[in-house]
Amino acid sequence: SLDNLPVAEATAVRPPVEGASGAQGRRRTMKGFRDALTEAGKAYPHLEVHWEEIHDRWNEHLTDLGLDPELFRYQREMNADEGEAAGLFAVKKDSDFTDLLLRAVTDTRDTDGLADLVGGFGNKLGRRAELIAERDFTAGSVDLLGRIVEAAEARARARDIHAGAERRTRTLARRLSARGVRERVRAGELA
Fold first, then answer.
1. 119-155 pLDDT, tens per residue?
2. Where are the domains of the chain?
3. Cβ-contact 44, 59 below 8 angstroms
């Protein structure tokens, strides 16, 4: 059905259920739509996906399938005569064209999300100078904090070296004191 066409980016390469649409993302570009149909054609050869960019080749392909290309031309003319396509693109102001594009690419059920998104971008653009200053301050702070960390590590290493030297000095002093006592006792015995 038309609901299963890959017009929006899916969350997964293939939908978890055969025939179910995995579309949940933003609308696809024409190239993205074509790539998705081509991938579907590779995954499911029975679909016989065929894509032509040149109108004459498309007519030849329809003729090869036993379909009359004139039927499609009649359908296009009927749509144009009914004013559907022609009326759709008849805009008087730039804002009308913008509204047309927004209606074409957004899900009308979720316009609040679009409003929030546009509002968020507007707020960010309004705070850009502040955010740039904050970024620069943060980068400078990180550099200075890095220097402080390096100095603290060097200080900790120096303290460890000093504590080790102090332990060795105390051990040597105890040994020398004990030897001095032994030497005095021995000198007393020899005298």
1. 888 888 888 888 888 889 999 999 999 999 999 999 9
2. 1-51, 127-191
3. no
